[in-house]
């Protein structure tokens, strides 16, 4: 059986560790998959260094996550993480594995494109995508074997950006598909197929969903996509594109009845059906 990734790190959002329990709850509902759990640093209180809260713990966590993946050499990957910071490991690993022939669909209310110099909070979960591009704290960048290029990115449902992120998206010409444009799943699918990308990774921060449908996230953000839209998008991606990875992050609920809304949706979409 293939082994996937449980990465319950929480330090990328500070000392709120509810996402650790949330990621474990989601995993418990995906019994058709076997997961390797990444060992997480246990340091409290966190200190801020080089503009990042909990930097030493984060580096330790990312080292562990990357090492786990490189040992397994999994070609299709389901990653259940705590914060968006956990996505550093699966995205960097798959980008290396596929020789840079990977498109990343970043479904997230936020851009996660800050650097330590521009981040208002110092929380790494808001810097992880910029780090994957190879910009930010050097000790984290050094863990990358192959940085992403801006042309490998599509942002979807992103609606809460800091000014520095808006400038970066504009300067790098990164496509940004607004929530209202995702009502038709073909808008996103067409933007990816036009790139001729042979492989796609889908990052799913659950705050891309409107809080009226799923409020159990780190940063609930108004005017998100509805659950039925998300299901149609994942079904469309599954039927049109070679999806090689899916990351689900930032759930703060440890209630199986609340988390089952997400796992049932993912199962119905069929996007992970061939990966178990």
Description of the molecule:
The protein is an alpha/beta fold and 276 residues long. The chain has a single domain (3-269), classed as Ureohydrolase domain (Arginase, Chain A, 3-Layer(aba) Sandwich), CATH 3.40.800. The protein has helices at residues 18-28, 55-72, 88-97, 128-132, 138-141, 163-172, 185-193, 227-240, 256-269; strands spanning 3-7, 34-37, 48-49, 52-53, 77-81, 103-107, 153-156, 176-177, 200-205, 243-249. Helix 8 (227-240) links the parallel strand 9 and strand 10 (243-249). Helix 1 (18-28) crosses helix 9 (256-269), helix 2 packs parallel to helix 3 and helix 7 runs parallel beside helix 8 (227-240). The longest helix is centred in the N-terminal third of the chain and has 18 residues, at 55-72. The model has no long low-confidence stretch (mean pLDDT 96).
CA radius of gyration is: 17 Å
Which class in CATH terms?
Answer: Alpha Beta
Low-confidence stretches: none
User: What number of structural domains do the residues give?
Assistant: 1
Secondary-structure topology with pairs:
Blueprint: E1 3-7, H1 18-28, E2 34-37, E3 48-49, E4 52-53, H2 55-72, E5 77-81, H3 88-97, E6 103-107, H4 128-132, H5 138-141, E7 153-156, H6 163-172, E8 176-177, H7 185-193, E9 200-205, H8 227-240, E10 243-249, H9 256-269
Parallel strand pairs: 1-2, 1-5, 5-10, 6-7, 6-9, 7-8, 9-10
Antiparallel strand pairs: 3-4
Helix pairs in contact: 1-9, 2-3, 7-8, 8-9
Keywords:
276 residues, alpha/beta, Arginase, Chain A, globular
Please outline what is shown here.
34% of the residues lie in helices and 15% in strands. The chain has 276 residues and is α/β, with parallel strands linked by helices. An 8-stranded parallel sheet has the order 2-1-5-10-9-6-7-8, with helices on both faces. Strands 3-4 form a two-stranded antiparallel ribbon.
């Amino acid at each position: 059986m293939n082994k996937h990734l449980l990465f319950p790190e929480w330090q990328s959002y500070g000392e709120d560790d509810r996402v650790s329990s949330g990621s474990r709850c989601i995993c418990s509902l995906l019994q058709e998959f076997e997961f390797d759990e990444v060992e997480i640093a246990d340091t409290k209180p966190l200190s801020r260094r080089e503009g990042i809260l909990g930097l030493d713990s984060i580096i330790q966590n990312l080292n562990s996550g990357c090492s786990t993946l490189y040992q397994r050499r999994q070609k299709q990957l389901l990653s259940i993480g705590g914060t968006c910071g956990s996505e550093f490991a699966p995205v960097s690993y798959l980008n290396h594995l596929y020789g840079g022939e990977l498109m990343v669909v970043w479904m997230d209310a936020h851009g996660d494109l800050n650097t330590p110099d521009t981040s208002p909070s110092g929380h790494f979960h808001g810097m992880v995508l910029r780090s994957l591009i190879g910009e930010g704290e050097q000790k984290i960048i050094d863990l990358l074997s192959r940085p992403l290029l801006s042309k490998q990115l599509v942002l979807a449902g992103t609606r809460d950006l800091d000014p520095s992120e808006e400038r970066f998206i504009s300067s790098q010409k990164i496509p940004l598909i607004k929530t209202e444009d995702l009502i038709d799943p073909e808008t996103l699918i067409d933007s990816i197929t036009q790139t001729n990308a042979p492989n796609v990774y889908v990052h799913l921060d659950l705050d891309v969903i409107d809080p009226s449908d799923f409020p159990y996230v780190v940063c609930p953000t108004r005017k998100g996509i509805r659950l039925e839209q998300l299901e149609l998008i994942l079904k469309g991606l599954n039927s049109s594109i070679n999806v090689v990875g899916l990351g689900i992050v930032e759930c703060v609920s440890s209630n199986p009845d609340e988390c089952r809304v997400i796992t049932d949706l993912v199962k119905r979409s069929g996007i992970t059906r061939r990966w178990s």
